[in-house]
Structure formats: C-alpha cells, structure tokens
Amino acid sequence: MYLVAHIDQAICSETACRLCTQYCPEANTILYDNAAKTAFVAVDRCKGCEICVGICDDLAKHHAIKMIMITDLKSTFELSKEGFRPDKWDGNHP
Amino acid sequence: MSVKNISITPGWEKYMTKEYLDLVERGPYGKQKKVSEMGSFKEVLEEHPMCAGCAMTLFIRLTMVGLPNPEHTVLIGTAGCGRLALTQTSIPFIYGNYGDTNAVASGLKRGLEVRFKDQAKDVVVMAGDGGLADIGFSAVMHSWFRKERFTTIMLDNEVYGNTGGQESGMTERGALLKMAPKGKMFEKMDMIGLAQTSGVAYIARLTPTNPTRVASVVRKAVLIAREVGPTFIQAYTSCNIEYAIPTPKVLDDARDIEAKRYGFMEIISDEAKAYLDSIDTAKKAKK
Lengths: 94, 287
Ligand SMILES: Cc1ncc(C[n+]2csc(CCOP(=O)(O)OP(=O)(O)O)c2C)c(N)n1
Ligand code: SF4
Ligand code: SF4
Ligand code: SF4
Prior knowledge:
The complex is a heterodimer of chains A (94) and B (287).
Chain A: E1 3-7, H1 9-15, H2 20-23, E2 30-33, E3 38-41, H3 51-59, E4 65-69, H4 79-82, H5 86-89
Antiparallel strand pairs in A: 1-4, 2-3
Chain B: H1 18-26, H2 55-66, E1 73-77, H3 83-86, E2 93-95, H4 101-115, E3 122-128, H5 129-135, H6 137-145, E4 151-156, H7 191-197, E5 202-206, H8 211-227, E6 231-236, H9 250-262, E7 265-268, H10 270-286
Parallel strand pairs in B: 1-2, 1-3, 3-4, 4-6, 5-6
Antiparallel strand pairs in B: 5-7
Helix pairs in contact in B: 2-8, 4-6, 5-6
The complex binds thiamine diphosphate and iron/sulfur cluster (SF4) (3 copies).
C-alpha cells in the first residue's frame, strides 16, 4: 500500500493553472483533461514524492492536491493501460 | 528538417507499441511544444527507475521539452543516475564510457555532418558532475578547445549519486557526505570560468525552479551548437538521497540554493547572439 497524488477536480477546474503538470518530475504523470478543464494523475506513473502538493498549495495557492492511499481511490487512471489518448479521456477520466 | 524519420512504414502500425503510436500522433514533433502545454502532449520520456522526487529527473524531463528537434537529436550519456532516464526516451542514446562522453560526441557530430549534409543533427551530452568535471574533464576541455559543435549539459547534483555519495570536484567546500565524512576540503570547481576561457559560445548556469526557463536555455544551447560552436549548461539538480532532502522539499531546496549561491546566469558570444537574432527575425518574417 502506498500514497499517490489525487487532484480534486472541482477545485482544480476553477482555474486550471497547469502549474503542477510542469513541476512533476515524472513524464506524462499529471495529465490534462481539456473538456473538464482539470489536471488528473496517472497513478501507475506517480512515485508519491509530493512535489505537486507543494506546487499547488504554495505556488498556485489552490490546495487541490492531496496524497491518498491508492487503495482508497474509488477509480484510477493508468497510462500504461489507456495510452496517451486525450480524445478518449477528455471529460471521462476517473 | 522533417518528421519522416519517426513515422511508421505503412502496414507496420499493428506491430508497434501503443507508446510509439501515441508519440507519432501526439508527440512533440513538427512544431516545438511549450512548457505550458505539458500534460497535453505525449512526451519523449517514458517510465524509468530514477528516485522519487529527484530534481535531476525533473530537469531531464524539461530538457526533452526544450530540444528544438527531438527527431534529429542524439543523446550521449554515461554511468551515473541521469542515464537511467535518458535511456528511456525515444531519442537515440549512446552510452559513452565514464569519461568518454565528449570524445564520443565529437566524433559522432563530425560523422553526422559528413553523412547528412542536407540535415542538421543535434548532439547533446548529458552527464553528472563526476562524469564531466572529474573523470571526463580532459575530454570536456578538449572538445571546447577544438570548438566542437555540440551541447554539454552537466547534471550537477554536487555528488557521485549513483555510487553512494563520494565528493566530486563540483561538491561545495565543507559539504558532509557519506564518503566525505570530514567534509570536503577543497572549493567547488569553476566550470563556468573554464568554459569562458575555452571560448564556449553559450554558457548557462541554472536550477530547475523555472520550467519555462529551463526549456528556453536548452533550446538556445542546442541551436547555437548546431551552427556556431560548443555550448555548456550547468544545472543544479539536487540528489535528495545523498543530501537527505525530504522529497516534498526538493523544490524549496532548489529555490534556496538558487537564491544563496547558484543563481541564473547566461554568457553568450556576439556571434551566437547574432545567430539567435537571425532565427527570430526569420520566424517573424514567416508569420
Ligand atoms: C571508468 C569508470 N570508473 C568508475 C565507474 C563507477 N561509477 C559509476 S557511476 C559513478 C559516479 C557517478 O557520479 P556522477 O557522474 O556525478 O553522476 P550522478 O550519479 O551523481 O548523477 C561512478 C564512479 C565507472 N562506471 N566507470
Ligand atoms: S497546480 Fe493545482 S490548481 Fe493548478 S492545475 Fe495543478 S492541481 Fe490544478
Ligand atoms: S506525487 Fe510526485 S510523482 Fe506523483 S504526481 Fe505528484 S509530483 Fe508527480
Ligand atoms: S541517487 Fe540521487 S541523483 Fe540519483 S536518482 Fe536518486 S535522488 Fe536522483
């Protein structure tokens, strides 16, 4: 069991500043849903470093990201299963 | 320049991995992507085993976004942490022996110029401070003296991270490390000064605190190396393991070190500046 970053879509979509996407050390891990205007996390890529939490809290000042036990997530998005397909995930990601 | 060399031969699509198909269709080819678009395009970097929260990983990720033509780039790396990610990109990677990177890059760049007279190929060395300032030092210096046209990027974590914490020439004086238990006794090497003395066309020192700046510095360095002469980027990319930085604090540390001693600086030759200006003018004329 381990922690992964989880983004509150309701808070994020208010501004969708896209700052966390630029500071996560891992490639294509915080992705962007153009239809819902929110960032979201590919849990299979997240290494749980919490850098994005600091970016959203202190730089963006939006407090949209929390670390959550992977087993407590109701549904998850995995890039290795889904592939990089914004046309499919826009408006439909978990 | 053309993206033909990454496209798939018709009929072979079904044999290619999903990752490759995504790259061809939604990757950073044809038109350079912006840092602000990250999350909306397929990056050339895949999963890799570098540590969680490593600043070097972030820097490598941003470097890949800054490359002006990833489809025409060859990366050279060596032993050290960075190659763990550099080998997981869709860009050809050559593993130079520890110490050899800049000699390998010199030969490769010259060979590519002979082989591809009609295409500019970019050669980029990315290696650690130990790899470039200690063991590869003479190859780095001589590639600069010979004015070899490629980019050298030093991933300066100020330690030998991959082998458990020995001091390097780039470690700060007094730094305590597992294998420098009394603290390093000598000053950090002045690679920026040495690059200047050697006539490097573009020199930059920075940290990963500003992603757009990282990508822009990389773009400039690669373009200048294509036409003008050697370029050098020295990037503070902390090792959170050997310096015991909790991962949520990695960027606070980078901001702190930047403010206290690392800063952001660029040194550009007149010729290099004129070349960049000519690219901008041509771009504006096109619009
Ligand atoms: C000729 C040679 N000597 C020693 C080594 C062992 N070695 C592997 S990685 C490494 C240190 C890497 O330190 P650095 O270049 O600073 O990169 P970092 O791991 O810190 O990113 C050493 C000494 C080697 N691979 N080859
Ligand atoms: S930093 Fe916060 S508000 Fe901005 S895109 Fe990321 S999660 Fe959304
Ligand atoms: S916890 Fe780290 S790896 Fe996971 S999404 Fe946030 S910044 Fe990326
Ligand atoms: S050992 Fe240090 S430099 Fe190497 S991947 Fe881990 S944190 Fe990064």
